[in-house]
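Mods, move this if it's the wrong board.
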Amino acid sequence: MMSNVRQLRDKTADSEKITINLGYVDLGRIDLLVQEGFYSNRSDLIRTAIRNQLESHVEVVSKSIERHTMELGLRDYTKADLEALKAAGEVLHVKVVGLARIAPDVTPELALETIGSISVLGALQASADIKKALADRIN
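Not the wrong board. Structure tokens:
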């Protein structure tokens, strides 16, 4: 009966959960603003505060990304990308601020042959096998 059910695609997270510790007074002030209707919940206030703080440093972040020759945002590395690098005899140095994803069909062998280093400020999504194979190349 269930033979006609199939998974269309994996759902990947578009955010990462973090944990912070706050003092009781700050937490109470947040709860007061939520209660007064300024924010829908604690997370909404915290996300807004973080975005506002990041916006106040946008120029510094941009210059740093440029100086370190990093890519900003989402960067996917496909099997075809890595095979093209291998064919050209080139080695990739991943430098991303945001999310770097290595496609699920990339083998550990191909990753080892083509990826020289990985530096991600944010999150790296790759199979456990890829992460294990590249462990000494991930900063």
